[in-house]
Amino acid sequence: MGSLCALDESLQYPVARRDDSVVDDYHGVKIADPYRWLEDPDAEEVKEFVQKQVKLTESVLEKCETREKLRENITKLFDHPRYEAPFRRGDKYFYFHNTGLQAQNVLYVQDSLDGEPEVLLDPNSLSEDGTVALSTLSVSEDAKYLAYGLSASGSDWVTIKVTRVEDKKVEADTLSWVKFSSIDWTHDSKGFFYSRYPAPKEGEDVDAGTETNSNLNHELYYHFLGTDQSEDILCWKDPENPKYLFAASVTEDGKYVLLYIEEGCDPVNKFYYCDLSVLPNGLIRDLKSGSLLHQLPIDIGTVYGISARREDNVVFVPSKDGTKIPVFIVARKNIPLDGSHPCLLYGYGGFNISITPSFSIGRIVLTRHLGAVFCIANIRGGGEYGEEWHKAGSLAKKQNCFDDFISAAEYLVSAGYTQPRKLCIEGGSNGGLLVGACINQTRIFLGCALAHVGCYGHAATIPQVYHRYSPLHNVRRPWEQHQDQPSQYPSTMLLTADHDDRVVPLHSLKLLATMQYVLCTSLEKSPQTNPIIGRIECKAGHGAGRPTQKTIDEAADRYSFMAKMLDVSWID
């Protein structure tokens, strides 16, 4: 199969220190954590580990012949002017524009549809490398002020600033400790609602990550324009439910403010409203008088996207328990089903999120120049078939996700779309967990695995029920488990970013160190010849706000690695 062993080269993995004395006891279940030292990103030993891994990965990618061709072709397809639909506030129009390869989209304003556009906010001017991104914004009803949130290096933490639209002057207003927040102005344009967390106490780690130590006690505030943040009015908090998230939205007529209460991605949420007209000065000061409404099937609102007529190729694959799993298959028409095609299978399966094929420059290049078949498995845990489908792949039933995904992979082989050594699986975030678990469990001799920013089983966050599928705690030598057949882990790339504060890098670093030790460095002559590497992006986060060039470079790296490991040649 395609791997570096075909080049008569063996990888020299860096040796990572193991501290076997670190063992946690969770209700009688002892869990070793020999790489706990990798949790401190500022430690010199961790920095040295990361540098060695970066050097190792680059040595592998240098051998990937399609890398520069992929980068060149993806860049060409990115390099075209892009516009977003304009929106109106007051007597002005606002829209985003990118000339092609700008790191971040630029916000423009014009006085009329035929007016001369002016740059209102250019995030590219806020950093030399384009890593400061605009995460949220709201224009006041009179179109005199722009309130916006800035995120640095992909962090979920946001700083809210205010700019005057007329002369582009940045006001002194600066709001900190903002995360998972919208911005919504009252119609008098005197101020806006936003959400934040309490400022951390001295010694607290604000970047522990939401998949390691969750931020607690989200609060809703109202900010008066021109005042200090310390004077902001606390509108809502719920200390009895510290994991709740709050957001406010002022209705189109300006009479009411709607309070949305969520817990994670739970679709069963609370909805409050308050009449602004009956409150002093038209501002919310205490929402305890708001009344709880029943759930509404809201069928009105703004159209944010359209779906044109298209022809989808969907097959329904029986999972381990017989449940039919929809799998979208994107490929050139009339391809022979002879198992000759490289195939990329993507999955997510979590948080009630539905995933269907959508336009992707990177995947267009895969199908055009690598002859790849691209597939999406709508496994349980997602939202494709409602709440029952979601719950069937959650918590104690999470194993269904992995069974569904493995069944989809087996179908693609049996149906002739590909063969095991030409099959790559990919997923990000919750999908990274999916890929990590599946390479531990599947007996298919997969060719490649790409796992992005996944939560792989930090010991402190794994209750006993999850320990059975934790990617970190279930790395096994397959040749010892299945001695009747030659087997090893697929060529694997774990992708993470140094500023990811949603799923912090320690997840990927620990799994990388564990896989390299168990499968490679702990044996004198290991059967594991397929490479196990990590791509660690600098000055980037969980994915949002990533500069254009970083997006292009990452796509070229991971897909050239896939092409090399699947032994795929370039097609002009």
UniProtKB/TrEMBL annotation:
<feature type="domain" description="Peptidase S9 prolyl oligopeptidase catalytic">
    <location>
        <begin position="357"/>
        <end position="567"/>
    </location>
</feature>
<dbReference type="InterPro" id="IPR023302">
    <property type="entry name" value="Pept_S9A_N"/>
</dbReference>
<dbReference type="GO" id="GO:0006508">
    <property type="term" value="P:proteolysis"/>
</dbReference>
<dbReference type="InterPro" id="IPR002470">
    <property type="entry name" value="Peptidase_S9A"/>
</dbReference>
<dbReference type="InterPro" id="IPR051167">
    <property type="entry name" value="Prolyl_oligopep/macrocyclase"/>
</dbReference>
<keyword id="KW-0645">Protease</keyword>
<comment type="similarity">
    <text>Belongs to the peptidase S9A family.</text>
</comment>
<keyword id="KW-0720">Serine protease</keyword>
<dbReference type="InterPro" id="IPR002471">
    <property type="entry name" value="Pept_S9_AS"/>
</dbReference>
<dbReference type="InterPro" id="IPR001375">
    <property type="entry name" value="Peptidase_S9_cat"/>
</dbReference>
<dbReference type="GO" id="GO:0004252">
    <property type="term" value="F:serine-type endopeptidase activity"/>
</dbReference>
<dbReference type="Pfam" id="PF00326">
    <property type="entry name" value="Peptidase_S9"/>
</dbReference>
<protein>
    <recommendedName>
        <fullName>Prolyl endopeptidase</fullName>
        <ecNumber>3.4.21.-</ecNumber>
    </recommendedName>
</protein>
<feature type="domain" description="Peptidase S9A N-terminal">
    <location>
        <begin position="14"/>
        <end position="277"/>
    </location>
</feature>
<dbReference type="GO" id="GO:0005829">
    <property type="term" value="C:cytosol"/>
</dbReference>
<dbReference type="Pfam" id="PF02897">
    <property type="entry name" value="Peptidase_S9_N"/>
</dbReference>
<dbReference type="InterPro" id="IPR029058">
    <property type="entry name" value="AB_hydrolase_fold"/>
</dbReference>
<keyword id="KW-0378">Hydrolase</keyword>
<dbReference type="GO" id="GO:0070012">
    <property type="term" value="F:oligopeptidase activity"/>
</dbReference>
